Amino acid sequence: MAKPVSASSVTLQPSSPATSAPDNLSIMLMAREGQLEQVAEQLKVELERDRSNLSLANRLAIIYAALGRIEESREALETALASNAVSAKTFENLKVLAGIQFARSYAQALGQPVPPNPQGLETLDGDGLQVGALKQQLLAFEQAKAKAEAERLAAERLAAQQRAAEKLAAERAARAKEEASARAVEKMLTQWARAWSSVDFERYASFYDVSFSNDRFKTRADWLAFRKPRIVGKSSIRVELSDIEVQVTKSNQGLTRAKARFSQRYESGRLRLNARKEMDLVYRGNQWFIQSEGS
Q1: Which domain, by its residues, includes 63?
Q2: Residue 294: C-alpha distances to residues 92, 176, 247 (Å)
Q3: At 54, is the pLDDT very low, low, confident or very high (cuts 50, 70, 90)?
Q4: Model-level pTM?
Q5: Which among 67, 75, 202, 260 is most buried, taking Cβ atoms within 10 Å?
């Protein structure tokens, strides 16, 4: 049966390349015996043989810290980190970042502005991956992004200008068409008055649409039957129109319609009449027709 191990039975021997460093249990036991300084010396010797051994450095740093030797604790870690091929660059980067953080904290404590581009930041390097190169790539990305955004906004402005121009052109075309229609209505009313003045009933009747109706007469035939004896046989008729106002619209059925208002002066023999008239007109087959007529 194995005998228990006591702290007094553990002895640290000078280390050789073939001798392993004390493990954690041995270190704890030697600390109980007040031999922590000896452990530190042995680990220091071992670390000098293998300066990049992070495990040894970490144990030595902890022992130094337990002994209150903080500066030596930090130096042990820094030496190992700087000597280790894997951690050396990481350690350098860490020191740069720690310096930058310190500078920022110091500036903030003094109420000074924090430097936007801290010194040393560009030197950070990780296996060929550098902050400066990455920032250049980020800058290129931001520039490309800004250019794309500027091009998008320019395209949107151009499209908006084109839409506005097309809308303006359409509005102008619509107004021009409406004005042309209004002139055509005025011309048709002039011809209607001329046919009436010429006592040309057939011509006069041709201006009335098949769907004509008004408050008194519900059909075109009834209206023309009423109007014929008031035109045919008259020796003289004179009809003059003035102050003609025309408003052209579109109906729900897609028909172009117009409402005309005008002053009418009628003379026949001794009869003289002045009236303000209103007509509804419809456009069919490239011609305007009277659909309703009243005073």
Answers
A1: 16-123
A2: 100, 28, 16
A3: confident
A4: 0.50
A5: 260
